[in-house]
Design brief:
115 residues; alpha+beta; Complement Module, domain 1; 2 domains; four-stranded antiparallel beta sheet; two-stranded antiparallel sheet; 1 helix; 8 strands
């Protein structure tokens, strides 16, 4: 598969290959993607985004910069966190319990009113 500037990996993300100046490649985001964007000075910026159902925690870009201690990225690598408060199995458990209570109440009302 091709992306707008190269190939895509098995997750459908553009392959962010190579390193940026003296910094290592920031690597793969779990539940997200990254893309290398070349800059004029020869260094690259990496852009990050998350797959549907996840939101980015942290900055959406990292650029390699030279400092007093050598080459470092200007930001920490972000992470993709689930947008939803509950995971699917938690929703199932809540639904199952509420349904059980609903049916118990329905049986009680039927008995009370002899429906």
């Amino acid at each position: 598969m091709f992306s707008d500037n190269g190939f895509e990996d098995q997750r459908g993300c553009p392959i962010a290959s190579g390193q940026s100046c003296g910094c290592r490649n920031p690597g793969v985001l779990q539940n997200g993607c990254s893309k290398r964007v070349d800059q004029r000075d020869g260094c690259a910026t990496f852009e990050f985004w998350c797959k549907p159902g996840y939101e980015l925690e942290g900055d959406d870009t990292m650029q390699c910069q030279r400092g007093r201690r050598g080459w470092r990225y200007d930001n920490r690598r972000p992470r993709c966190a689930c947008k939803f408060k509950y995971q699917y199995w938690q929703i199932y458990e809540i639904f199952r319990k509420e349904t059980h209570i609903l049916y118990a109440n329905l049986r009680q009302y039927k008995a009370m009113f002899a429906i």
